[in-house]
Amino acid sequence: MGERSKFKKTIIGSQSQVKRELENLIEHYKVDEIMVITNTLQFEDRLKSYELLASCL
Fold first, then answer.
1. pLDDT tens digits, residue range 13-47?
2. Overall number of domains in the chain
3. Per the domain annotation, does 32 fall within a domain?
4. Where are the beta strands (DSSP E) in 1-57?
């Protein structure tokens, strides 16, 4: 299996847990940018999710 198959697909948790997981990924892969997709049906829920993410980083 290639490196892509080893990616953790989902990060779920409190703001501090999500921050820690994202920081771990950034350190492991030595990147300076990440992309996030929030799968929700309602725009307001998606916006809230991105606001929470922004506030923890």
1. 999 999 999 999 899 999 999 888 988 999 999 99
2. 1
3. yes
4. none
